[in-house]
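USER: Note each token:
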Amino acid sequence: MDTALLVTQIVNGLQLGILLFLVASGLTLVFGILDFVNLAHGAYYMLGAFISATLARWTGSWPLSVLLALPLVALIGVFTERVVARPLYGRSHLAQVLATFGLILVIDAVAMLVWGVEGQAVELPAWLNGRVTLPGGAELPAYRLVIIGSGLAVAAGLYAWVHHTRFGMLVRAAAANRDMAEALGVDTARLYAAVFALGAALAGLAGMLVAPLTEASLAMGLEIIIIALVVIIIGGIGSLKGAFVAALLAGLVDTLGRAWLDDLFKLAMSPEAAETAAPAVSAMSVYLLMALILALRPQGLFPPRTRGHGQ
């Protein structure tokens, strides 16, 4: 096996996994802590990409555009929490699904009016356009390593926030028993809005990071939300650790499957059949992984001890 190709595909898988984690972490926080099903979570991913692309064009600096876009996406999250989510806390998940599906249509329509139907490319600064040589002779764009490093930093920050801050303690307390937390003086409405804003910012950050690799497009939110839901189911709903591990697994399985599944199939079938079957199976690989995990652990890899504890 070509070592350089293997290293390249592993890095690509880690990059995809990190992007999935950024989206899935916010989704699992909102679902696990607030018990709210937000199908519109992928829209923050799309908005992050479009807003950062616009700001990058205005300011001429992509890093600055990310710093400016993050609070804007968080504010959009606060607005949608106040208008759409808050009246539906405690209601059935079906009501939440229907409301947030309608929110997807509204956000997509607004995005189409503002940015049009064409995608928007984002140009990276020259210092991020270089290449890095990894062990085994693999050469990769330096920006891919920036994405991985950024995602790992966010994961470490989230862990510290959940487990080692007063705010994280209050969030876990409200998730475990909202009535008791309110009786002790915790402003759960403000707390829930902050969690929603954080989830929106995380998804938006993923969109900002991926936009220079692909482009900001209207369909990107719908494409990511399905796989993000798969990730949190594999990891355990409400578990940040589960979302992290499941996202990396999903990224590696998807990337390595697309690279070598046809070679594996050729060991048992004709080359023509292998080349036909491999793309179809690789497209289903993450869902097959979910089915396997749920068959062995129906609650996911790392189910939280109590809803929303972020274990």
